[in-house]
Specification:
This protein is mostly helical and 58 residues long. It has helices at residues 6-17, 22-29, 34-41, 48-57.
Length: 58
């Protein structure tokens, strides 16, 4: 199994978000703060549950 870097995860989250602002995307995901989305896009890995939710939205 290929190991995925945190940066690649951030790139994918950014791609899934598309044209939505980080604030709009946070609301769609049920994340309370937009700055969490920023952190995820810069390489912090979300919880497995949130990753699944992001995949479902995308």
């Amino acid at each position: 199994m290929e190991k995925i870097s945190p940066e690649k995860v951030g790139e994918r989250i950014r791609a899934v978000r598309g044209q939505q602002t980080q604030t709009e995307f946070a609301k769609v995901l049920g994340v309370k703060k937009q700055n969490y989305i920023s952190r995820y896009e810069r390489g912090r890995i979300p919880s497995p549950d949130l990753l699944v939710h992001i995949a479902e939205v995308g």
